[in-house]
Amino acid sequence: MKVQISVTVNGTNYQREVEPRMLLVHFLREELSLTGTHVGCDTSSCGACTVHLDGKALKSCTMLAVQANGKSITTIEGMATNGQLHPLQEGFHQEHGLQCGFCTPGMIMTAADLLANNSDPSEQEIREGLEGNFCRCTGYHNIVKSVQHAAKKMV
Amino acid sequence: MGLIGTSVKRVEDKRFTTGQGRYTDDIKLPGMTYACFVRSPHAHAKINNIDTSAAADMPGVVKIFTGSDEGIAGFGVPCGWQVNFKNGDTMKEPPHPLLVADKARHMGDGVAMVIAESYAEAKDAAEAVVVDWEVLPAVTDAKAGAAAGAPLVHDDAPNNLAFDWALGNDKAEVDAAFDTAHHVTTLEYKNQRLVANAIEPRSAIGQYDTAYDKYTLYTSSQNPHLTRLLMCAFVLGIPEHKVRVVAPDVGGGFGSKIFHYIEEALVTVAAKAIGRPVKWTAERRESFLTDAHGRDHVTKAQMAFDKEGHILALRAKTYANMGAYLSTFAPAVPTYLHGTLLQGLYKTPLIHIDVDAVFTHTTPVDAYRGAGRPEATYLIERLLDTAALEMGMDPAELRFQNFIDPFDGVEEAGYQTQVALQYDSGNYHPVLEKALKMVGYDDFRAEQKAARENGKLLGIGFSTYIEACGIAPSAVVGALGARAGLFESAQVRVQPTGKVSVYTGSHSHGQGHETTFAQVVADKFGIPLEDVDIIHGDSDSVAFGMGTYGSRSLAVGGSAIVKSIEKVIEKGTKIAAHKLECAEADLEFAEGKWTVKGSDKSIAFGDVSLTAYVPHDYPEGLEPGLDFSSFYDPANFTYPFGAHIAIVEIDKETGKVDLKRFIAVDDVGNVINPMIVDGQIHGGVVQGIGQALHEGAVYDASGQLLNGTYMDYTMPRADDFPSFETDRTVTPCPHNPLGVKGAGEAGCIGSTPAVVNAVMDALSPYGIHDIQMPVTSEKVWNIING
Ligand code: FES
Ligand code: FES
Asked: Fewest CB within 10 angstroms: A40, A145, B49, B309, which?
């Protein structure tokens, strides 16, 4: 009793048959081998799985793959365009916003949504905007600087 | 060139920022199956029967293993450190079975492993395994566990004691100092249990290749070689050379991924048994139940002072919770990584520490970032600020007058403590002076007074810490019970074209070795950074390794690399002298070339390497090739130190503690990459403050972990913190070639007491002297509201 879905991911359309209970994050990782989107928890708390659904940040473990039918998704693998890193990808590199890198894709996807809604956020706004994403390595200090770096580049 | 000491941007970033990191769970092998564990829902329960028949018939199920199956029954994971009882009796070391067959001893103990075509199917089937449990009474607190009549975790460990242990000066002498002291400060507290919570859950894939009779284990480990050694020699009894262990990208460890876990051995066994690869990845709830936890000490500590505030003596008794089994390094944590640090930065002449290591029906406890040193620092630094409050002294002044005098470890000898260690080099006044200046201490007290008059609760807290890392001299730790050496290995292979591959036994899971180590190599050879590749984490390419923990990678692993670099340069000099037709002594090596002193005749690094591999015109008797391995065993631990200051403001209405500022001045010896060192400090500080204000594993009386998910366990978040103010002083380590001390744990060791001290300072108008961590709004509100 698999269900046929059609989802556009990073600009490519995929038709797949999936179990109705499959989470979107598992669809991305297992069916499409897009392993840049990570799983860090089972309670939709950590944000490691964050992607964009029709342009808005979403924890992809909170949604079933079938619910994404007909939608358009961007994952971390789709952030660089024509070999050019997204300003956030560049910002995290310049400001040492990552250590183990496990939270990084989710952080970047959340931060991209944040900047789309607020192109010049204050430090406090950045911190509040990222509070649904856990990082155990960086202490957040340089993540804030990375987002500020990107914000400056994007205006 | 000139790369040492510069903030080179990390070479590893690109793969992580573009989603191309490769963590264990990202690996998919042909024919792979998926494992899900049946785990004990009880803390202590007898297993009367396990019925797998219904589960075995479920769709997709390949095989179900239980603890009575051949190849699993009788096998267990070992402990790697032996601490004997005070009376010389051997440590109690009950078996830690791969799967329990008769009795579960903590919630999460493994009972069965279900393997299926997909993870969802394995999970469905795991739920259909029926276990007939007979629930037994449990104990979760270390002190309660040691009390008479407590439920026993292991029948052959009376009073649940794994061992007892003491260190320091003669107890009677220490007690006598307390009897005659002007002032005695006493604290009784729990240094609460923490869960490491690396954001990547643990994961392991077993694979068996019949053609080569070879196993491969991919695992999210901080030390693949030690995992291989333990698993082959001490668990499964399979030949070490037939096992490859790969720890690919690993998403943080913080200690929890040092240890050899049952799941690693089980997927390895299962892969051969079913002839297909087996993957297991923890769900977060499993991480909470099965990753080794940290801390969990119940402590009573006292410090004795004379009238002027000189420390006369320190004594402490700690009940250290070991959990249900002895994890790999567990016995070392409350003893040789804790008791030995009680000298702190102070001239305390008399010290005594007593530790009871106690089994309880909880997840095993082992090293978590700092491992023992945060507990020691908390003990000393809380006593100091409390004493200052009680004696009406300034906490900074109190520290200054007790600091050990500076010593460089070269001209002046290292500092011999009362608790076994000899500090390498230290200069303690400047870190606190610098931190005081950064915080503006001269003005702070006036500001605080004004704030109080306006009804605001503002507080400042101090912590001046020392830690022992860069572990460790093998002979020393061997004498202290380690069942392994703690050296490191490195191979520096110069390729014919002058490009360099470095194979290190250290493992990077966020620390940035691929950059820092490359900086050292490129700097020493005078070649571009891009010409150096750092390879780690694969036992088939790296000869041997002791892994990464205890802030040892650069101090020990980096030193091994330097040894190999020196060998390369020495041999290169022979080749260069031959080519330039001069004596070796006439050559100097700098900026990537050998030059005949006082001339412009030179030969480049790449020409020498090419000659080494195309040895047509070559020194007689010299072996071809330019490739050297080294093992480095350090002469001593390294001893970073620092001063952390926290400023908090408490909201009287809600009891919420607002961390206004955090200043960290750390001395980690020489610094290769300041950006990376700062990052390590930031991360450590947040983990330390996490303990002070947010985190703590809570068990109920029956042994249920009440906060085993992210819905319940408070993880530090971005909006809990201000940006940090960091600086450093540099006191080089005198005994390793880079002069480095290690930065991985310092932040986590220093920060916790600074924040709690700040809270106590803010609450000082309420006349209380202690509060238990984590300092939640509720606790503070209750104090404010009587
Ligand atoms: S995996 Fe989705 S929020 Fe943690
Ligand atoms: S970089 Fe490791 S969790 Fe954020």
From this structure: B49
CB A137 within 8 A of CB A99: yes
Q: Could you tell which of B17, B199, B287 is best to mutate to test the pocket of ligand 2, judged by most ligand atoms within 8 Å of the CB? A: B199
Contact assessment for residue B665 and residue B767, using Cβ atoms and an 8 Å cutoff: no
Q: Would the pLDDT of B636 be above 90?
A: yes
Residues B202-237 have pLDDT tens digits of 999 999 999 999 999 999 999 999 999 999 999 999
Beta bridge partners, B103, equal B46
Q: How confident is the model at residue A155 (pLDDT cuts 50, 70, 90)?
A: confident
- Amino acid in position B593: K
B249 neighbourhood in chain A, CB within 8 Å? 100-101
Query: Could you tell me the two tokens for A82?
Result: 């024509």
Q: Which secondary-structure segment (H or E) carries B87? A: none
Question: Rounded distance, CA B323 to CA B317, Å?
Answer: 19
Helix (H, G, I), strand (E, B) or coil at B690: helix
Do residues B392 and B776 lie in contact, with contact meaning Cβ atoms separated by under 8 Å?
A: no
C-alpha span between B549 and B365 (Å, rounded) = 16
The sheet with strand B183-195 has its strands ordered as B161-168, B351-359, B311-323, B293-305, B183-195
B254 in contact with chain A, both atoms CB, cutoff 8 A: yes
**B699 has which bridge partners?**
B705
Residues A10 and A73 in one domain: yes
Count of domains forming chain A: 2
**Exposed e or buried b per residue across B562-573, where buried means at least 16 C-beta atoms within 10 angstroms of its C-beta:** bbbbebbbebbb
Residues of chain B in contact with residue A108, where contact means CB-CB under 8 angstroms, are 17
Q: In terms of domains, do A64 and A100 share one?
A: no
B284–A contact, CB cutoff 8 A: yes
Assess whether A74 and A108 both reside in one domain: no
Q: Is B53 exposed, middle or buried (0-12, 13-18, 19+ CB in 10 A)?
A: exposed
Interatomic CA distance for residues B520 and B495, integer angstroms: 18
How confident is the model over B320-344, as a mean pLDDT? 97
pTM of the prediction? 0.97
Q: What torsion do the CA atoms of B771, B777, B783, B784 make, to the nearest 10 degrees?
A: 140
Domain shared by A8 and A72, yes or no: yes
For the Cβ of A99 lying below 6 angstroms from any atom of ligand 2, the answer is yes
From A140, which residue of chain B is nearest by alpha-carbon distance?
B718
Strands laid side by side in the B593-596 sheet: B587-590, B593-596, B602-604
Average pLDDT value for chain B: 97
Is the Cβ pair B718, A128 closer than 8 Å? yes
In angstroms, the first-to-last Cα distance of chain A is: 49
Whether the CB of B12 is below 8 Å from some CB of chain A: the reply is: yes
Sole residue written with tokens 């307390």: B178
- Mind listing the domains of chain B with CATH numbers? 13-136+200-251+257-290 (3.90.1170.50), 373-469+637-784 (3.30.365.10), 487-632 (3.30.365.10)
Residue B188 carries which side chain, given as an amino acid letter?
A: E
* % of chain B at pLDDT higher than 90: 98
Q: Report the length, in residues, of chain B.
A: 786
For the cut 70, the answer to whether the pLDDT of residue B513 exceeds it is yes
A153 touches chain B (CB under 8 A): no
Q: How far is the CA of B287 from the centre of ligand 1 (A)?
A: 14
- B86, amino acid identity: K
Closest-CA residue of chain A to B252: A100
